[in-house]
Design brief:
The protein is mainly α. About 75% of the residues lie in helices and about 0% in strands.
Length: about 180
């Protein structure tokens, strides 16, 4: 079943839409949640919470593509779960996106970030990269994949992936600085 049909079912408030989401995207949703939170119990709860969030937001939303919409919900829920779980344990956790933000962070906490300018800069940065580099960057900093996992998926060595990530972080930092964006 395609995305339009699934969304149509959700607009009709048919629970079959949720079953179709589970059938089409459940494995990807569980995979992302597990990579971020690291245990099966949290993974199941996050996927269920994501299905509820999709049910509550569609309608009125008509996300395109549906997979990106669902994975964004899963990612946000999983990151929140990991942060709150580790805060309760008074333990610091560094997610890959946090690692990137720390490297690009401004020393001046008073500076405000324009979200639209940042989004535009990130889109331009990724558009200027080769397909493999975009894949590496997104897998690491959006999907929180490990460097060895990215290495296996791309056929590049672990060192090559690490070097590319390092160079891309430096290039992104330079681009943001040129545009006057300080994180």
């Amino acid at each position: 079943m395609d995305d339009a049909q699934i969304i149509s079912l959700l607009f009709d408030r048919s629970e079959q839409g949720l079953r179709e989401i589970e059938k089409s995207y459940g494995e990807k949703m569980r995979g992302l949640a597990f990579r971020l939170c690291g245990n099966e119990q949290d993974t199941g709860e996050i996927v269920n919470d994501a299905l509820l969030a999709a049910w509550n937001s569609i309608p009125p939303a008509r996300p395109a593509p549906l997979s990106a919409y669902l994975l964004k919900i899963v990612r946000n829920l999983a990151c929140n779960r990991v942060r709150s779980r580790n805060a309760a344990l008074r333990r610091a956790v560094v997610l890959p996106a946090d690692e990137l933000a720390d490297e690009l962070m401004s020393d001046d906490p008073e500076e405000r970030i324009d979200p639209a300018a940042l989004a535009s800069a990130l889109n331009d940065f990724l558009a200027s990269r080769k397909k493999t580099d975009r894949l590496i960057f997104l897998k690491r900093y959006w999907f929180s994949a490990g460097i060895s996992e990215i290495s296996a998926q791309t056929g590049l060595s672990v060192t090559a992936v690490s070097v590319r990530l390092s160079r891309m972080k430096k290039s992104l930092s330079e681009l943001l600085e040129k545009r006057g964006i300080r994180l």
